[in-house]
Structure formats: structure tokens, C-alpha cells
Amino acid sequence: MIRKYLLPLISIAGVCLAVYMVIKGGQHPRPAQPVAAPAEAPFESYVAGAGLVESSTENIAIGAFIPGVVTKVYVKAGDRVKAGDPLFTIDDRSTRAELQVREAALRVARGQLEKLRALPRVEEVPPSEAKVREAEANLGDMSSQLRLFESVTDKRAITEEEMNKRRFAVQMAQARVASAKAELDLLRAGAFRPDLDIAEAQVLSATAQVDATRTELERLTVKAPVDGRVLQVKIRVGEFAQSGALDLPLMLFGAIDRLHVRVDIDENDAWRIRPGSRATVFVRGNNTLRTEARFERIEPYVIPKRSLTGASAERVDTRVLQVLYSFEGDKLPVYVGQQMDVFIEAPPVSPEVRATQQSGPTPL
Fold first, then answer.
1. Interacting residues of 305 by C-beta distance below 8 A, sequence separation 6+
2. pLDDT tens profile 210-224
């Protein structure tokens, strides 16, 4: 029974299974359905490109003027700030101490200048005038004694030496009068002009040092350059903030009331782009979210392609022309850094040009 019925049935089942597998293997696999329906171009003739959303001010990488430890962060990602609002502060204790030292030096320099400008002091003039009167009185006394000696008719009564002493005493008294008057004139003249110039220069120098320190103090608090929104915060209190250009900026900032879309156009299609051409942008993942975009500018420098879309047929060794369009930020639920599908109206390609593009360059 087994040989007569069972073995033939097993053989027939094996043959049927083999035929089924051959037929199944010869069929082409069904292409996988996309997660979301692709966007359809709204123009008869167009150039398509991948667009990257960015702020209207372009994405501003916020850095620190002076390196140091962050003591305070005033904002968080998503906050809207005005131009000049503080973003974060670097440790400023040493700078504040230096400012106090330089302000004290400025006060000293100003005091020295005011002291020179206040000369002569009212209290110093009467003593100098009294010295002049004293010298004049002494001169009068010496002159009277000399005249008395000179009036003696008998020359034998006074020696020549005594007469010379009287004459020299009068000359010394005259010199004292002249010296006292000169000192009084010098006192009344006030400060010496070069001394005032030096004092004024010292005040200017001290003022400049104070201003420089205050500027350093202000630079320790990094402020918003324009009105906008904080897109990303990568610094925390207690962390060391480096200055200069960083691969990962401390903060990312930009104005997003009106968003820009930076569209990469393949260099082969760059000749078809016209300034002012209409464009429509689509949100990836939902082709019903779309809006008209306004032309902003063409950056007239073709660069190597950097932004990749992930498409299987995408070339990574090509160069692209970047075209910027914009739209109101509240028209679409998109975020800075998000990719969009962009269709730009362009003149049609003639059949001859299309055939040349398909055939490629003529080999040498």
C-alpha cells in the first residue's frame, strides 16, 4: 500500500512544490510603497531641489569673546529675545576687581589735576605778601644804615671794611626783596602749563584704562546680536566656554518670523534658474502642507554638495548652486534645520538639449 499509493503522492507533491517555487522566484518583487506620497510639481516646467530651512538672519553661531567659566545662562532653547538681551555670562570677578583699581587710579589723577587747576590757594597768598613786606622793611633798614654811614664826614671814623659790609647788606636785602616778589608772582601765576598738560594726559590715560576694563566687563556678558529666537543651547553653568569658532557652537540663534529655505540646485540645472522665479515648498512627509515662497537671492558661487537627502540615486560628488527663498514662519509647521521639497519654475528644456543630457558628453 505504501509503495503503491503513498510514495507516488509524495512525488507529485514535490513536483508541484518545485513548480510553484520556480514560478514564484521568476516574478519581479513589488516595489515598497513610500511612507508618504511624494510631492507633485505645481509647474509644467520646473527644477526640483532639496531645501534646508534656516533663519532669515542665517543661523548665527553664538560664541564667547573671552574664554572662561560660565556663571549664568539667561535663556533656554526656544526663548525669544530682543537685540542686546543677555544670553550668558562668563566669570567676571577678576575683571571687576581690576576695574576698581583703575577707577581709584582715575580718581587720583583727577585729584592731581584739580589741585593744579585750583592754584594758587587763597590761604597761600597772604604769607607770601607778608614775606615781601618783610624783605622790603629789611631793605629799608639796611639802606638807612648805609646812608647814615655815608653821611659821616670824617672818613677816619668808619673803616673801609665796615662801609663795604653795609653796602653788601643793602644788596643782600635787595636780592631778598626780589626773591620774595618773584615767589609771590609765581604763586599768583598758578600751575605751570606743562604740568597741567601732563596731569590732563594722566587723566585721559586713566579714563581710557577704565573704559577698556568696562568694555572687557561688558564682553563677559554675551548678548543677542539681533531680535530672534534661541535655537539651541550647548553651554551650562560651570562649564568652560572657549572663544573663537567652534565645531559645536555654544548657542545657535536666529530670527524665525520669516524663514529662509536654502535650495541646492544641481550644477547641471543651474543654467535654468532665473532670478525672481516662482517656487513652491512642500513639507516632507505631508505633501498637503505647501506654500508659495518668495525669491530672496542667488548665491553666485557653486559649492560642493554638503546636505544629503538620503535618496538612493543621490550623487554626492556633485556641485550645487544655492538659491534662497523665504516664507512666513507661521504658514507651515516646520523647524529650522528641516528638509523640504522645493519646485522652482524654469523654462522648458528643448528636445535637443534633453537628448544631449541623456547621451552624455562625446568621448574623446
1. 264, 315, 316, 318, 319, 320
2. 999 999 999 999 999
